[in-house]
Structures are given as structure tokens and as C-alpha cells.
Amino acid sequence: MGKVVMYGSVSVDGFVADENDQPGPLFDWLSNGDVPLDSSGALTVSQASYDHTRAYWDQIGVTICGRHVFDLTDGWDGTPPSGIDHVVVVTHRPAPEGWDPEAPFHFVDGVEAAVARAQELAGDRVVEVAAGDVGGQALAAGLVDEVRMDVVPVVFGSGKRFFGSVDAQHLLADPDVVIRGDRVLHLSYSVRR
């Protein structure tokens, strides 16, 4: 079974979006380089960011996100982002009316059910949990093996927190990955158990 990784781009003060769900400059690093990150050519990063990010993205089998992110992205028009095979959406509501039942999206109630379904779908590939409320819930439930973050040099002051509403201490190991990209610092921590 693959590991469960909580992941996202984050401001240095710990936010994944502002109060209006806008990422501001958090994704600028994905377009300020000269190395295409995917086949679309829309994402171009530095060589260091490419080497780190592409290798990670190629390991992901399933992404877990919350219904809020699903709605903000209009469900990526039924196509999982970045070449991922499946998306598991944590929600108390059914799929949107008219949603294509053949699209590789799975709607489940609760993070435990989401991780179980994602692991089933991913096999030995990585299960990625989006940072924010759902990621924080998965961390609090002891379901996350690793925390990866792309730290962007900006201070938001307030907004949507990387770890959501986690209100207890969780220990991480020393970073096992520290890579400096262009306008981003890629970090990876194992979760201490």
C-alpha cells in the first residue's frame, strides 16, 4: 500500500489561500521557469523544481480533496488534475446534478472513508491529501505518513490554514527533503508516530 502524503503550496505564515479562497502568488513558481512541468506546457518551473515535483507527481495515484475545493475548481471538468488517475472528494453531499458517473471521481463521507477508498484505488502508489481542512483532519486522525509543502516567500496574514483547524500538537521528523527552487522552497517531513 502506498503512503499517504499531505501536500500543498503554502505562504511562509502557513496559509494555502486568502480569506476569499484566492491563492494569490502561491502558484507563481509554477509559471516562472523555463522547464515544462507537464505535457500542456502551461506549467513551467525551474530545473530544481521540475526534478523534485515531476518525480513526486509521477508517484501519485489518487488525490483526496474536500467538496469546497471540488466546487471551486468546478470538479476540474471531470478530469483529474496533473495526470492523476482518481480524485476522492470528502463530502456530505452527493455528486453534483448531471455529474458524469463515469468520471474518475469518488464522493465519500469522512476522511477515514476517503483514505480507505483512495488506498484501494491507488494500490502501491501515493495517496495525496490536499492541504487545508481535509488534510488537517487526515493528519489529526493519524492517517498521514508524510507532509510535503512548497513554501512560497509571501506573508498572507490570514486566510485558509495549511493544516486546517488542527488544534493538537503533531510531531514531524526533521525534513528529509529541502530543495530551493525559483521563488519556492520544497520541503518534506515524515510524520512521527
Automatic annotation (TrEMBL):
SUPFAM superfamilies: Dihydrofolate reductase-like
An MF annotation (GO) of this entry: 5-amino-6-(5-phosphoribosylamino)uracil reductase activity
Stated name of the protein: Dihydrofolate reductase
Source organism phylogeny: Bacteria, Bacillati, Actinomycetota, Actinomycetes, Micromonosporales
Superkingdom as given in the UniProt entry: Bacteria
Domain Bacterial bifunctional deaminase-reductase C-terminal: 86-170
Chain segments annotated as coiled-coil in the UniProt record: none
A GO BP annotation: riboflavin biosynthetic process
